[in-house]
Amino acid sequence: MLEVRDLHVYYGEIHALKGISFTVRQGEIVTLLGNNGAGKTTTLRTLSGLLGARGGEVQLEGTSLLGIAPHDIVLKGITHVPEGRRIFNRLTVVENLEMGAYTRGDAGIAQDMDHVFTVFPRLKERHTQIAGTLSGGEQQMLAIGRALMAKPRLLLLDEPSMGLAPVLVEQIFETVLTINRQGVTILLVEQNAAMALSIAERGYVLETGRLALEGRARELADNPEVRRAYLGEA
User: Fold this and answer.
1) ∠ at Cα 106 (103, 108), nearest 5°?
2) pLDDT tens, 73-114?
3) pLDDT, tens digit (0-9, with 9 covering 90-100), for 120-134
């Protein structure tokens, strides 16, 4: 579905991504692991068109995404839930969800909003509430729900568990699994490596902009280097 080949991205003269290559097959959950500064967020921002690449290729089902505006990438079926959620704090829950459907002109928006409320019942309870007054977990639900309103085929998730209590982390990951089972392919960047590897089929480990390891999620979870660096084991 998604193929990234020899991708190079810079911030000014800083070489952030140094020729990484990976694939995401339709229906998978694939996770990108790595320490802060490894290039995970940069990768997602490049895939969604927020950053330009100086070299390499990104293709969605054989069509290049490089040089395409972010809103056109949304139209092609990719949505991005950014690190830090980036909801519209002064809008209501419903208005935020409506913003997620801004590229659409079809008659199914109300039905899809009902689907989001089914996935996140808490948002239905809070549908008239100003988004900035929601709890952290509710804001994360809203950010994911807003992305779902664009009817993505590929969902890019950047640190969905950041800053959440453990019980909410489990709830968010259960929801990610539910979304995947409903037919949405997911590329997941996550600081909680154990949780990410528990739901993913495959994973890639980035180190300072380079691909260091790749494999089945279970294999990575059993890898001594991964266990020491990302799972907190001596």
Assistant:
1) 110
2) 999 999 999 988 889 999 999 999 999 998 887 888 999 999
3) 999 999 999 999 999
Residue 53 amino acid letter = A
How far is Cα 30 from Cα 83, in angstroms, rounded to an integer? 17
Burial classification of residue 12, based on how many CB atoms lie within 10 Å of its CB (0-12 exposed, 13-18 middle, 19 or more buried): exposed
| Orientation angle between helical segments 166-181 and 136-148, nearest 10 degrees | 10
* Domain ranges, ordered by start, for the chain: 1-77+152-234, 84-151
Which residues have a Cβ under 8 Å from the Cβ of 113 and sit 6 or more positions away? 94, 97, 98, 101, 149
Domain 1-77+152-234 architecture: 3-Layer(aba) Sandwich (3.40)
- How far is residue 162's CA from residue 131's CA, in Å, rounded to a whole number? 18
Residues 6+ apart with CB under 8 A from 123: 93, 97, 116, 117, 138, 141, 142, 145
